[in-house]
Amino acid sequence: MLRALGVLAGILDVAVRDRRISKNPARGARNLPKKVSAKERRYLSEAEVVRLAAATHDHTFVRLTLVLAYCGLRWSEAIGLRVSDINMPGRRVHVNRAAVEAHGVIEIGAPKSWEKRTVPFPGFVVDALEGQCGGKSKGDLVFGDASGNFLRRAKTSEGAGPCLHARLRKPACSGSRRKTSGTRRRRSPSARARW
After folding, report:
1. What is the pTM of this model?
2. Which of 24, 54, 56, 186, CA to CA, is 20 to 30 A from 170?
3. Residue range 31-59, pLDDT digits in tens
């Protein structure tokens, strides 16, 4: 119903612009049903985050996995981070941009829904971020490739897309789609011990 209302509102906006009607009655509609997702969200446990990070076998991806899991950032927000966006003493990440890959080209823009925000990170992520930012200037990417360019999403044998199952290949993490951002505010002794 919300999609139909959006389409109708768009059509009526054109009618207002063309002066066929004076006001769009579809804008500001009230008592609409709330948008409900039919998908049940399943988040990675701390043990699954640690296993996923360890399975990457690359310090950059280990640290990126921890930031994605415990800060709740989207992939495009994390790979768009600059060193100047990290406030180590305040343990905050300033999300100001997103680096979205479209048709093989990285486009820099505002975060999804133009949601610039500041996100706290737990103390055990400090070491990972310090290790990732060490020796870089303020304008450098936090999670760049070996050449300092934007990281690209990993490719799996099925094509481009999330590589969680390709990395883990274990039954404990198979099944429904899982998100790493659900462990965001928890402290992880196992993650602290490893990184």
Report:
1. 0.62
2. 186
3. 777 777 778 888 899 999 999 988 988 89
